[in-house]
Amino acid sequence: MTVQVLVFGAIAAAANAHSVSVAVPSSPTVADVLAALAAEHPALRFALPSARLAINSAFAASTAAVGPGDELALIALVGGG
Amino acid sequence: MTALAHIVDGPVTSEVVTQALATPAWRAGREGAHTGAIVRFDGVVRRMEVDASGEGRALVALDYQTYDPMADRELTALAARILETHALLRIAAIHSRGRVEVGATSFVLIVEAAHRAEALVAMEAFIDALKVDAPIWKRPIWA
After folding, report:
1. Which of residues 34-63 of A touch B (CB under 8 A)?
2. Looking at residue B109, what is its pLDDT?
3. By the 8 A CB rule, do A1 and A68 touch?
4. Which among A2, A35, B96, B137 is least buried, having the fewest CB atoms inside 10 angstroms?
């Protein structure tokens, strides 16, 4: 299946988009999505070591399941303040 | 004990802060005689920033992007966590969304505690965590 991941800040600039799509196995986990991002979008690799995935606006553990229709967002360590 | 957190459009002006601190929730949390220290931090957009090449460069503004509603939720959760962890009496955090000009304030944090030491430690802890947990990004608008 294919999932869309929202991206922001420097990641959005690197992707030249506000979201990216990745192909993941059926019944994917957060770890599967992050692995697919690294494999399919080399331009985003710089941010992945410090990035976390949010599912429906809440940070999710790497083992958390990603369901169809979930809103995914890649949140990297680039804060405000 | 009261934790208050807001994201506002544009700069965090003194009017914005006054308005936030006039809310019944904040006023009701007044600990009065228990308070020994009130510390306020204002984050201001400075003129010089380092660009992608590592060179210092002048800005006209920063454009803050937030992932809503997660940004507001994380800011609120962080305020509650710091309030409890550091035994504060009150904490208020207000952060900008959108364009904030050089010299204007984009973030205000106020902590109130029984003693100076926990207020200062809590302030540092909040700002460190904000940069990790809050989905807020700043885009430089170069001069």
Report:
1. 54, 57-59
2. 98
3. yes
4. A2
**ipTM of the complex, rounded to two decimals:** 0.86
Percent of residues, chain A, with pLDDT higher than 90: 86
- Summarize pLDDT for B34-47 with one digit per residue, the tens: 899 999 999 999 99
Structural domains present in chain A: 2-71 (3.10.20.30)
pLDDT score recorded for residue A80: 46
Superfamily of domain B2-142: Molybdopterin biosynthesis MoaE subunit (3.90.1170.40)
Tokens of B30: 């007044």
Which residues in chain B are contacts of A75 at CB distance < 8 A?
67, 135
Q: Which residues of A fall within a CB distance of 8 Å from B64?
A: 80
- Give the count of beta carbons closer than 10 Å to the beta carbon of residue A25: 10
- Sign of the Cα torsion A70, A71, A72, A76 reads negative
Boundaries of every domain in chain B = 2-142
Average of per-residue pLDDT across B67-90: 96
Whether the pLDDT of residue B87 is over 80: the answer is: yes
- Chain B: give the shortest CA distance to residue A8, in Å: 7
Chain B hits for A79, Cβ within 8 Å = 130-134, 136-137
- What average pLDDT does chain B have? 93
- Specify the residue for token string 């999505």: A33
Here the tokens at position B29 are 């949390």
